[in-house]
Amino acid sequence: MKKFIKLALKTIKKAGASYGDIRIIESRKQRIDIKNGENERLDNSTTLGFGIRVIANGALGFASSSDLSGREIRKVAKKAVQVAKASAKVRKGSVKLAPEPVHNDIWTSPYLVDPFQVPMDEKLSLLMQIDKILRQDDRIKIAHSFMSFWNEHQWFASSEGSFIEQNMLRSGCGFSATAVEGDQVQTRSYPQSHGGQHSQMGYELILGMPLKENAERVREEAIALLSADECPQGEKDLIIGSGQLALQIHESIGHPSELDRVIGMEANYAGRSFVTTDLYKDFHYGSSLVNIVADATLPTGLATFGYDDDGVRAQRYHIIQQGLYKMYLTNRELAHVVDENHSRGCNRADGFNNIPMIRMINISLMPHQGSLDDLIADTKDGLFVECNKSWSIDQRRLNFQFSTEIGWEIKNGKKTKMVKNATYQGITPQFWQSCDAICGQEEWQLWGVPNCGKGQPGQTAEISHGAAPARFRNVTVGVDK
Questions:
Q1: What's the pLDDT score for residue 287?
Q2: Of 71, 260, 318, 345, which shows the fewest CB atoms inside 10 Å?
Q3: DSSP line for 392-436
Q4: How high is the pLDDT of residue 281?
Q5: Per-residue DSSP letter, 367
Q6: Peptide bond into 457 cis (omega under 30)
């Protein structure tokens, strides 16, 4: 790869670029889906290609190709510079990258069992066993289980002298059961997160999860929801399970913290942000219990890496500290907008053929104290919800509504009857300001989100969010009919 990299950087310089970098990426993916006893999907794919990004005449240019050859390297490098020079004719200001030390490094995510070496028959057998348990009642009309695996090997080099090789391996799995009776349709999933569990691990993720052990419970809860009472309406103290809270963090803290959204560079996909720069530093985003940490060094996180796609070393820092807003997610291009003299390491691209943009790294709500049982015992009139079913949030990430697969009423410190179609809504800062309890480390769990979308053309990124169950006071629940 080094000969291609040297050729690219040489061509970039000769064509008149003041800066350039190249990312060569070899990616392998596998996805297995079982639906109602049938192998619905079995995908194996590999890609290899490169993307070249440059600055020329103060503007950015980018070009890519899946043909990794010397001739194509020269062609694409020249094209990237041409794009930059054309863009410079209409630019409003010059692109200036925040300084970053030169890095020469190799980084590999740890794993125990390579999932691509596990026999397909073993994977299919486990999924089929889960499927069989889920369909032991005629009211289960859809049983779905899956596994997914992804490996990315990346080589990055810049005209500043950095050369970084990274190899990342990620695994995921989960299942769901959908029960139907009359006009009632209810689904339960495992694990209690949005789309299964995904981690930067090998096949040991699957081996370590009690998948078959939870299949019967999931089936029975889906059936029980058919005849459960509707979610009550009004204001309740709301306890949110960690899997659902992960998505709440993602939508109402992660996305509004992306600096390109804040300044309007990104608005086409999912809007902008209410956390404008006049609110930057010490805005009361949440209660004093709320500590939100961005961490690209977190073990098993989907957004854990050695370096981002700017070649910036992975970091850990507070976005929100004791309820006060502290830090945006930035890259080298935009750090200066908030008077930062270095990037926060959040520039990431989806594959070799997309230009990097600001993306979330792992963002987590820090634990406090106590167990979930303690929290329920301390709640007089409340609702406990978990596992997302649907969500909606406005174009500034302020007004939101989430619906969950399941809920339980809490009366006088006890979890009582199950309720269906559990829904809650709020306004982001008021909601987080109402947080008055967060469970301790023993309840904290890291959840993977493998499909975060952003940009047009759209890009997908992977992120993890850690959380323990938390309580929010006087939240509007239920839907008026």
A1: 98
A2: 71
A3: EE-TTS-EEEEEEEEEEEEETTEEEEEEESEEEEEEHHHHHHTEE
A4: 83
A5: P
A6: yes
Tokens of 61: 């240019």
Residue 269: what pLDDT?
79
Please tell me whether residues 17 and 80 are part of one structural domain: yes
Which residues of the chain have a pLDDT value below 70? 480-481
Find out whether 73 and 3 touch, Cβ atoms under 8 Å. Answer: no
Query: Over the stretch 177-232, which tens digit does the pLDDT of each residue have?
Result: 999 999 999 999 999 877 899 999 999 999 999 999 999 999 999 999 999 999 99
Are 198 and 462 in contact by the 8 Å Cβ rule? The answer is yes
Per-residue tokens: 36: 């109602």
* Domain limit, last residue, from 209, 227, 245: 227
358 and 209 fall within a common domain: no
Its domain, for residue 222, covers 2-227
**CA dist., res. 459 & res. 395, Å (int):** 18
Kindly report the pTM of this predicted structure.
0.96
Residues 6+ apart with CB under 8 A from 464: 198, 199, 200, 298, 300, 301, 302, 303, 304, 362, 364, 446, 447, 448, 449
Q: Report CA torsion sign: 247, 251, 256, 259.
A: positive
